[in-house]
Every structure is written in C-alpha cells, then in structure tokens.
Design a protein that fits this description.
Layout: H1 5-25, E1 41-48, E2 51-52, E3 61-69, E4 82-91, E5 108-110, E6 119-123, H2 125-133, H3 138-147, H4 154-169, H5 172-190, E7 195-205, E8 223-233, E9 235-236, E10 252-255, H6 262-267, E11 272-275, E12 286-287, E13 292-298, E14 306-308, E15 314-316, E16 319-325, E17 329-330, E18 334-336, E19 348-352, E20 362-370, E21 375-384
Parallel strand pairs: 2-9, 12-21
Antiparallel strand pairs: 1-3, 3-6, 4-5, 4-7, 7-8, 10-11, 10-13, 13-19, 14-15, 16-18, 16-20, 17-19, 20-21
Helix pairs in contact: 4-5
C-alpha cells in the first residue's frame, strides 16, 4: 500500500516530540516512566506476515501473536496478575485511529486461537466469504464506507459518488447490486486493511498514584478487574505490479556500546543477547544493585523496506524500537530512525538498577515497529549477581558500565 507523505511527516513529528521529552529530562525521573512495567500490560500484536496475499484466486493466512509484559513476580502478601479471558475479533472497515478504530460494520469473531488465547490465526478466505454476507446489506456497507472515507482509497471514494448518482435516477435494487460488485472489485484491486482487536480481561492488584498496591483494612491487596483492548492493522492484497509486500523488521541486541554489523553477528553469535534472526540461546546476564548495563541494538539494512510517497519518491520506511523492563530504568524509552532525524543514529540504551534495592529477575521486552504495520519483538532476562561478587554499597563507581561483575 502506498503511504502518504503527509502521514509520514505527522508520524515523525509525533514520535520525535515524544523522544525529545525524554532527552530533555536528562537524569532519570522519580516517577515510573511509560516503559516501566509495574502492572500487566499489552504492548502490541505481531502479525506474520504483516502483508497477506489476497486475490480472487488465492487468499493467504495471517498468524497474530499477543505481545504482553508482566510486572515482577509477587512477594509476601502481594498477588500476581491473572488472565481471565482473551478474545479476538476483526473489523473489515474501520473508521481509523482518530475514531478509536470504531468499526463501521459488525465485527467478526476470530475463533481459531491457541489454548492460551495468545495466538490467533485468520484465513483471508473468510474475508472473501464475508463479502458475500454484505451483499444484502449494501446500504449499511455504503454508510460504513462514507464514515471511513478519509481512510479509504480512491476506488471506494469513486464508488460512493457512483452509488449516489445511481440513486437519483435508478431503482434501489439495481444500484445496490452495482455497488456491491464495485465494492468487491475495489477490495481485490486495492486490497483491504482490516483491523484486528484483542480484548484481554485481567484481574490484578489496584495501584495508587505512586504505582504501589492498595491494601484493605485486613492488610490484603485490593483486587480489580481490567479490560485491555489492543488493535492491529494487517494489509490484505493491494500490491501494485512489481511492489514487494511489507515484512516484519529484524533486529538483534548485544551487550556493550560498540557498534556492530550483520557480519559481526554472524561470526560472533555468542555475543548476542537476543535476536529475531533464527533461534539463539540467551547468555547469562548478571547485575548488581546500582549497576548500569549498556545494550546495543543492530538493525540489518536489508530488513528495512522501501515506501513510495504520493510524490513518487522512494524512501526507507520509518521504524522505532521501544524498550520495556519490569525492574530498573532504561535511559531511553524509544530509539530509531524517527527519533534520529537530523542526528546520528544511536541504537544504544542503558538499563540502570537502583543501588538501594536488590536486583530481581528482570524481564526486558523490546518491540520494533515500522511504518507499514510491521512489528517484531525480543524478550530476555537479567538475573541478580551473587552478593559476594557485588561491590559494597557506595563503591559501585569501580564497576564499569556493561561489565559483568
């Protein structure tokens, strides 16, 4: 799908502005930043592939995986989050993010899910079949396209004009029949961007404004039920001749701040912490209280797809990596090509642990998003170093960043 240059500009400005706030803050804040996982969070959905083959002759399948993050395991009387239900659905025509992804047609339940509910599979043939169900609801369909007109393609915009002109002089049955065939043609010609929704019901502890558990009169944590909704757009069809489908981005992470390239990763895989490029066993990462650990991300240039704007100019798509942890604090919330406009691209980030608190098993999640709905993620863990190998409190300056004590 061709991305509008104006939309690219708005995305860059918005993400760059958010990054500027983090940089301007300088030192780490006392409050929990947005990438600190103090409670159960849903941080994305990965679709494989993000662009699905969709023609009258063949419709492909997409696999959807929930990307979630958990707080530190509970201790004492505290209680960990309990997932009570995960539901998937798909909206064929959405009014877009500005309208909170309101669906202009009834949502379709996605029933092919894993036992845990965290993975769903959707066959594009169901879209082709679903088109037939709106054959007798053309008036509702056209109203839905009108609501989403700002987010739809020129084919459907022309269809609305033709339908309204037909209604002026023609009979309703003929106009509806022509409109349905026109809509079906538009779908296979220009593709469709259905929006998948995952609805997670979780029961966990109530937190106060300082993200601390709230207790009742008996000293027990107050529990609550939350419903989290996350949306994922997937492209079905719509490729122009010679256009390559968008792929999910690939990236790797290693310890230390030394820049590395793909060749180095292939020759020295033992240095990698985690990678999306095939199977890899994570090395042991140990940390002491007060220690800073430096991570270096690497993005293979050939994993970044090219996009063509309305002006016909082809450029690399925008991408950004967000860093999440349930312990310690990352120096940066997100880094990538969007945040680096006008400056050198720096893919390092530092995770610092508080000196006055023990290092517990820390879950780190990295999510990389690109401009054309691609998403990939990595997850790894940092463990506590044994006490006898950690420096005494107040003497940590002797421990260099990124070193293993």
């Amino acid at each position: 799908m061709i991305t509008r240059l104006a939309e690219r500009t708005r995305t860059a400005v918005a993400l760059t502005g958010a990054f500027a706030v983090v940089v301007a803050a300088g030192c780490m804040p006392d409050y929990n930043p947005s990438n600190f996982i103090e409670k159960y969070r849903v941080i994305g959905v990965m679709a494989e592939p993000p662009a699905v083959e969709f023609t009258p002759e063949y419709q492909g399948t997409v696999r959807l995986e929930l990307v979630e993050a958990f707080p530190l395991p509970p201790t004492g009387d505290l209680v960990g989050p309990e997932i009570e239900g995960i539901e998937w659905s798909v909206c064929l025509i959405s009014a877009g993010a500005a309208a909170n992804f309101a669906c202009t047609l009834p949502e379709i339940p996605v029933t092919d899910v894993s036992d845990s509910g965290r993975i769903a599979t959707f066959d594009g043939a169901l879209i082709a079949l679903g088109l037939e169900f709106v054959r007798d609801q053309v008036e509702v369909l056209m109203d839905g396209i009108r609501q989403a007109v700002a987010f739809t393609d020129q084919c459907n915009k022309d269809l609305i004009v033709e339908y309204d002109d037909c209604l002026k002089d023609g009979d309703l049955e003929t106009c509806n029949g022509n409109a349905f065939e026109g809509f079906r043609k538009c779908v296979f010609q220009n593709g469709l961007n259905p929006v998948f929704k995952v609805r997670v019901t979780v029961r966990d502890m109530l937190l106060d404004d300082s993200d601390l558990p709230v207790f009742d009169d008996d000293g027990k944590p107050v529990m609550r039920q939350r419903v989290l909704e996350t949306f994922k757009t997937v492209t079905f069809g719509g490729l122009k001749e010679g256009q390559k489908p968008n792929r999910n981005p690939q990236f790797s992470v290693r310890l230390g701040a030394k820049p590395v390239d793909d060749l180095f990763d292939m020759m020295h895989p033992e240095g990698l912490v985690a990678t999306t490029l095939g199977n890899h066993e994570q090395p042991e990462i140990l940390a002491c209280p007060g220690q800073e650990i430096v991570f270096q991300a690497t993005v293979p240039p050939d994993s970044i797809d090219r996009v063509t704007g309305d002006d016909g100019v082809e450029t690399d798509e925008y991408w950004v990596i967000s860093w999440y942890a349930n312990n310690g604090r990352f120096k940066k919330i997100r880094i990538g090509s969007v945040t680096a406009e006008g400056v050198d691209l720096d893919l390092t980030n530092t995770l610092k642990f508080k000196e006055e608190e023990p290092v517990r098993r820390t879950q780190v999640t990295l999510v990389m998003r690109d401009e054309l709905f691609g998403l990939n993620f990595l997850r790894f863990f940092v463990e506590a170093q044994t006490r006898d190998k950690c420096p005494a409190p107040g003497t940590l300056d002797s421990l260099k960043k990124g070193d293993k004590p």
